[in-house]
Amino acid sequence: MARSSSRQRLLDAARELFVRQGITQTTTRQIADLAGVNEVTLFRHFGSKQGLLLAVFGELGVFSGIADLPLQGDPASFQGSGLQAILLRYVHTCFRALADNPELVRSLVGEAGFYSEEHRRALRLGFSQAQEQLTQYLQQFPSSEFQSVEPERLHRAAGVLHLMILGAAVLAVTAGLPSSGEEKLSHGRSSNAESEPIPDLLQACVELWMAGLTDVKKAES
């Protein structure tokens, strides 16, 4: 069997150590040693420990992939429940990436008070990139209910949706909030290939989020 790449071994080692001993207590030297590479290789691939942390979350699928969701047919035809189904699929994918890695989330939350400014800046950057990507994706729907929403408001709304995902995932991991439910997408299938039920809370988050933007548009028109 071919040995995995040095980049993948670093990602695997970082994830293992972040879970086992915490993010702040893990050093780049420890990660490199566990991956069986030189520490210089880590910096060459990721630039810093903060860059590696973002890459770990990126590999899990946290706040990524919205631009890769297939647009079936003319984007202008996606209105109402069709667009809502796409958003629900995205929200559920992000939620599962976090909820399926509870120890990593607990470490991320529990150590937040000890983060350096570099760590905080890296996490803000990851959040901002996801916010921008989602905003640009929504702007692809020229006939959708988002068309008349001013770009800055839509950008802020994208951030709010991500905060909803984070909040639901943190509650699932720390307080035992159910991470599955019986809600289905409007076309009768669940959000992923495994036909996994979608938590009721996520369904409500997407519905309320879309309704809030629609109400704003009506009030401004």
Q: Ranges with pLDDT <50 over ≥5 residues?
A: 71-75, 182-194
Determine the number of helices (DSSP H or I, runs of at least 4 residues).
Answer: 9
Cα end-to-end separation:
62 Å
- Give the topology string: H per helix, E per strand: HHHHHHHHH
Q: Please estimate the helix content.
A: 55-70%
- Average pLDDT reading: 80
Tell me the major beta sheet. Answer: none
Rg computed from alpha carbons, rounded to a whole number of angstroms:
19 Å
Total beta strands:
0
The geometry reads as elongated
* Share of β-strand residues: under 5%
Which structural category fits the helices and strands?
Answer: mainly alpha
Name some characteristics of this structure:
single chain; 221 residues; mainly alpha
Structural description of this entry:
There is one protein chain. With 221 residues, the chain is mostly helical. Helix content is 63%, strand content 0%. The chain contains nine helices and no strands. The chain has helices spanning 6-21, 28-35, 39-46, 49-60, 81-99, 102-110, 117-138, 151-174, 200-220. The longest helix has 24 residues, at 151-174. The radius of gyration is 19 Å and the shape is elongated. It starts with 5 loop residues before the first helix and ends with a helix. Residues 71-75 and 182-194 have low confidence and may be disordered.
What is the structure about, briefly put?
By secondary structure, the chain is mainly alpha-helical. Helices cover 63% and strands 0% of the residues.
